[in-house]
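Design a sequence for this backbone.
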């Protein structure tokens, strides 16, 4: 595997009894990029991440992480935030981070020093000497996250890192992920919250029902759908729907539809001749959200967004 790929996994399969959790997933993570694994609950994200790291073995398929087919042999070069959160509640934040570093071979004194800097940079310096049990759930999750990167790993894997964080801590986490990428690390995270992937990822995999629906760059994902037109007429006449493509969707007085293959000119000419006018018109690349809906269906996306909303409200 060339140095350009921090991770290459092909046709990973994992069954639990009769349940096929992951069914032929391919993932290629370029060195130094931010990579998202997106999918609804139960899609197979955690199982995929565990296979990539060698925590569990695939039933079949191939994986190569940092140049080795034995991922556990490079665990000291990896940072991992598992889906299950938990720290020793009587430890202070700084000690908890240094402890996690020590587990990956970082000397305690250095771990403490780095922990102070990490907490300060994350805006959590005030909690350095607080016991974990005194911190909010979101803050203690953040401390665990800092513990997973204190040894400055080359490859960082975060399983649903945004879940359970309020918007302020989600913003902190986005900043931290970008900072780690700028440091030279490769970051892979799973999420069912599209907005984070849209803002952060260079490349992504979309998984649903254990199957890979898309793997590639975010730009290529957007290019799989036609450009989207957003048109606002000057009037409110529902009859104009007949002049728009059949799949046009009404959104608060505007209409959204894929730009026809033949272009917009003829349609705009008809709209003007019919007196509907043009109060607003933009042509945009489809969002990641629209690509996701096209790949996994509106219902799965609505369920995901409801879950994300509940987490933020909790
Ligand atoms: N150890 C296990 N034994 C049996 N079934 C499992 C096991 N681990 C996962 N599964 C099943 O495999 C499927 C994929 O689970 P996985 O945890 O990988 O999904 P996920 O995308 O991470 O979802 P979530 O975000 O809800 O954790 C689910 O149907 C889950 O119930």
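Sequence:
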């Amino acid at each position: 595997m060339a140095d350009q790929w921090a991770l290459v996994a092909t046709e990973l399969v994992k069954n639990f009894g009769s349940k096929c959790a992951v069914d032929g997933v391919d993932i290629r993570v370029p060195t130094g990029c931010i990579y998202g694994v997106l999918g609804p609950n139960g899609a197979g994200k955690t199982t995929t991440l565990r296979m990539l790291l060698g925590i569990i073995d695939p039933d079949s398929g191939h994986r190569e992480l940092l140049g080795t087919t034995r991922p556990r042999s490079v665990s000291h070069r990896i940072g991992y935030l598992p889906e299950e959160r938990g720290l020793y509640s009587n430890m202070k934040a700084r000690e908890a981070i240094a402890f996690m570093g020590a587990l990956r071979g970082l000397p305690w004194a250095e771990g403490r020093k780095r922990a102070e800097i990490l907490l300060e940079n994350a805006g959590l310096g005030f909690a350095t000497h607080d016991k974990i049990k005194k911190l909010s759930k979101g803050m203690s999750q953040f401390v665990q996250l800092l513990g997973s990167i204190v040894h400055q790993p080359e490859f960082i894997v975060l399983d649903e890192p945004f879940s359970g964080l309020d918007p302020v801590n989600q913003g902190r986490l986005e900043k931290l992920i970008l900072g780690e990428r700028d440091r030279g690390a490769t970051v892979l995270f799973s999420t069912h919250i599209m907005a984070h992937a849209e803002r952060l990822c260079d490349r992504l995999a979309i998984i649903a029902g254990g199957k890979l629906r898309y793997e590639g760059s975010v730009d290529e994902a957007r290019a799989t759908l036609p450009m989207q037109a957003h048109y606002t007429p000057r009037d409110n006449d529902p009859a104009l729907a007949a002049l728009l493509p059949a799949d046009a969707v009404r959104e608060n007085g505007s209409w959204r539809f894929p730009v026809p293959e033949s272009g917009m000119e003829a349609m705009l000419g008809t709209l003007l001749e019919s007196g509907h006018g043009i109060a607003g018109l933009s042509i945009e690349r489809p969002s990641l959200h629209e690509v996701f809906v096209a790949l996994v269906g509106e219902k799965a996306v609505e369920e995901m967004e409801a879950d994300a909303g509940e987490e933020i409200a909790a």
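The chain has a mean pLDDT of 90.
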